[in-house]
Amino acid sequence: MTLRWLFKKDLRELAASRAYWLLFLMLGPLVGHAFIAAVQSYAEKSGGSGAVGFTHGLNPLDGILAPTFAAYEPAVMLLLPFAAVRLLSAEKESGALTLLLQAPPSAGAMLGMKALVLLIGWIVAWIPGLIALALWNGYGGHLDAGEVANVLLGLALRGMLTIGVSLAAAALTSGTASATLLALGVTLGGWALDYTGATRGGLAHRLAAYTPEAATRVFEQGELRASTVLAVLAFSLGALAFAAVWLRPALGLRDRALSTVAAIAGTAALAAVCASTVSPRASVDVSESRRNSLPVADESALSAMHTPLRISVYLADDDPRLADLEREVLRKLERTMPDIAIHYAAKRRSGLFGQTDSLYGQVWYTLGDRRAMSRSTSEPIVLQLIYGLTGLTRPAPDDEPPYPGYPRSTTPSGAAAIFYLAWPLVAVAMWWMVRRGISRTK
Amino acid sequence: MSLSINGLSKQDGSTRALDRVSFDVRDGEVLGLFGRAGSGKRALFECLAGLRRADAGVVTDGETMIPSGRRRHSLFYIPDGITPWPDQTVGFVLQLAKNLYAAPTGKRAQVIDALQLRPLIAQRLGALSTEQRKRVLLALGLITSRSLLLLEEPFGGLDSSQTRNVSAAFRAEAARGRTLFLSSQQPGDLVSVCDRLILLANGRIVGEGTFDELRALSRLTDGTLDEVYLTLAATPPR
Asked: CA A129 to CA A134: how far, in whole Å?
């Protein structure tokens, strides 16, 4: 009963929040711009406007779905923290929190309700993205339900993480401004680390693999990876636990410090366990093109191979060949083979042109006592090499039909009017109606 | 609810906010806490309500000690100067309080009538005047089912008519067996509504008893509460 009323109160507070309605309003034009650009670009690749298209393998996941929902990236980094922080900081500043902390529900339960309400608000803010998908469907474009669901799951998890971080920032600081700055510092810090990691090697590259942006890319690639889902959940819940510690009244400095350390250590341990012990094979390739998987016949042959495969890669972190090798070969082998270990052996972690190691560029594959080297990043060549090491012949491909690709040359008719004109009007009208409804409650 | 507070102390940086404060709160009484600004009234209420940790001291109900984490089940503290949920209507906030703090059936309507809040029900809290907001805050406290209410500056901003009204509501609550502990720096209001008074100066209690007992203690038989307070506060601690 009390939780239901906490939920109701937080829902009304979110609905009364200008920060949330600003997020809601701005997402229309943001998504619209991304969608229109994606449709035009997809049309060009499909051979529209007289241009020569390369339609083979053209897929809406990369062409429409991922670019359209990429518009939520600035929203989750820059706008959602404002709405999330406000839901707690406003109660701190107005004195409402003093009253709430004397109510029967614990601080954790109160934060849980806030997180739930914010997640619902975040999901409601997907409406422009869903309208874009409906338009694409209306243009005769193809969408795969599994790919759409996976991208949305990634977006939900990303939102949860931002909500957790924002509530933790609001619990830690005394005012809305400082809490927002702290939350933005964390979200923008993750983005900066991801950017630095992509352009430079070394530690930054390693750390960038654990940023929220990297987690989002897994979903945009059409992969549902258990370790990613669990790690994001662990960090989100950890942030809420941290916030609960800082909201608990009458906690001594020593107890608060110990509880904080316990919350941080517990979160880090849980995330590390998720990332390291959950098998890379605990992953589902939901992409229609099976882009994250080896051919079915190879999958079945290699998954039955229990001899350990050791791979030593002599490529720097910022070498584009490493990214190709990981995407085309290593990640697929990890998802398939029961016993595989990859060692990144380049002496320098960055500086493609500064490498002096004579082994640089080589990738060594060791299976039992047999070794072979290749410089290729191509899946068929590496598979052939591995079969050579096993002494087996590569199985004949199954009769699986090749991914056809879904070229679609169309114009985004009506999209500009919907996202740039109608959406802002609808958002303002909804804000006015909701606010009127709240102010009429007796 | 009767409470015994023994040796409550609180250090705020270099300031001694509470200095071995000890007194009793009797069942069904209206107890007043009088002191100048900075005397430690808020620190005392926050420590009693379990919102701040005291450095020393215990709060007991009979023989049973009540740790700070469990006091929210029997005490409720309404600070002065807050505007909770300014975007929500008075009606919703009182409904929220009723459901969150397990108010008995009919209590919300009774409190609304007692504090004459019916005309304000559909107004937003943020749009109310200081006086109206004060009445809503008092209503929030009275709606809860807690047996001891700690109310800070309950008459602050009220006009004489509303002060009489609120005083009558407090007396009616006390007659139903509820205990009220009111803190103020306005002496007149406290004398008229409270059964007993506690005088706090520089974090220590300088007097406790009925107004007449305090006058006798200060040897000012016709003195005002302010004069009594200043005399007792100037007396060196024993």
From this structure: 9
